[in-house]
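The freezer alarm interrupted the setup, so I double-checked each line after restarting. Inputs confirmed:
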Amino acid sequence: DTAVSQTPKYLVTQMGNDKSIKCEQNLGHDTMYWYKQDSKKFLKIMFSYNNKELIINETVPNRFSPKSPDKAHLNLHINSLELGDSAVYFCASSQGGEEKLFFGSGTQLSVL
Amino acid sequence: SQQGEEDPQALSIQEGENATMNCSYKTSINNLQWYRQNSGRGLVHLILIRSNEREKHSGRLRVTLDTSKKSSSLLITASRAADTASYFCATDDFNKFYFGSGTKLNVKP
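Predicted 3D structure, all chains:
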């Protein structure tokens, strides 16, 4: 069983479209994250949720809207996609007090 | 900003040699972690060292931390081709984990 799974793995879309990426963790963790990895492999935190509540929002454009229906799921919806949104998006989770992150395998988003 | 910066950006060695990667950061930390990323995959946690520790070992991995210099190093001994991956350090700030752009390690068989 995959601990942190995200879908889809690849997403190719046109500029201006709206798309969603889904993430689920079966580790029982309280905290989930979205990270963006750019073409230079730099990994930047975007959002974090703890028990369905948003706790971190790192000055991400409001075209990006995370949603956590329950503590095992964290989805990312992106409106009006731009070329600069092309990147690999990683979902991750952690349990408070244990500190280490468990990552999904990533969603490679290509905006044409 | 708070992210770690890894050095070198790329490292190519022969199987059996040791690989050393460095990480520098800018603010005080609670702990520092190292992660590995295989091509096309997510990051995998390797080791965590706390701010009051100076050295930690896990199998073929040795991590050092110098809080006065705000730097850490990761040593992989007796490298194997399977160690080929990118390695990232991460510093934490109350549930925020900051990463750099990694060191890309290539271990030639």
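Quick read of the result. Chain B is about 0% helix and 60% strand.
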